[in-house]
């Protein structure tokens, strides 16, 4: 395997791990039952600003990580670059497998890139944040499915290339977030 393939794989691993961890924390701080269970902490003068800013920061970080994973720029370490690199280096079979596996998520990938481009990485003067989010609506489950499927695809690629790496256990960042919220409650 050439150095460029290795670089892309390593960079994708970092971006996928970032997307997973930021999604878990974002979910626990904003969408799960925790908003009700820890309402006093979210409303408190002591923790309110921190918890709300953390929620927003994890949302932004999740979208940025997803943007890196699916960046259309050929110079980026993205899924697109990995597919092109594999095809150029005699592994068109894996490149096609990636395309087939992620094809059901094309619309959501475009929505992620649109949100990232118009309101996160840049502030497009032609659009309001509300209009961008409305035209690119994604449910928390849509985002979770995309992240988990891209991670599964990544590990399938590693397996085909006879490589492996460690993965954080699912829910580790959710549990850690819950520990923090419970500590704030005491």
Give the biggest beta sheet: none
Category from helices, strands and their pairing: mainly alpha
Q: How many domain units? A: 1
Tally the beta strands. Answer: 0
* Cα shape: globular
What string gives the helices and strands in order? Answer: HHHHHHHHHH
What is the CA-atom radius of gyration, in angstroms?
A: 18 Å
Q: What number is the mean pLDDT?
A: 93
- Strand content bin: under 5%
Q: List low-pLDDT spans.
A: none
Counting DSSP H or I runs of 4 or more residues, the number of helices is 10
Report how far the terminal alpha carbons are from each other.
Answer: 53 Å
Helical percentage: over 70%
Protein model, in words:
This protein has 186 residues and is mainly α. The chain has one domain (3-185). The chain is 74% helix and 0% strand. The chain contains ten helices and no strands. The longest helix is centred in the N-terminal third of the chain and has 28 residues, at 3-30. The radius of gyration is 18 Å and the shape is globular. The protein starts with a helix and ends with a helix.
Q: What are the SSEs and their pairings?
A:
Layout: H1 3-30, H2 34-37, H3 39-43, H4 48-69, H5 79-88, H6 92-102, H7 106-120, H8 129-135, H9 140-160, H10 172-185
Helix pairs in contact: 1-4, 1-5, 1-9, 1-10, 4-7, 5-6, 6-9, 7-8
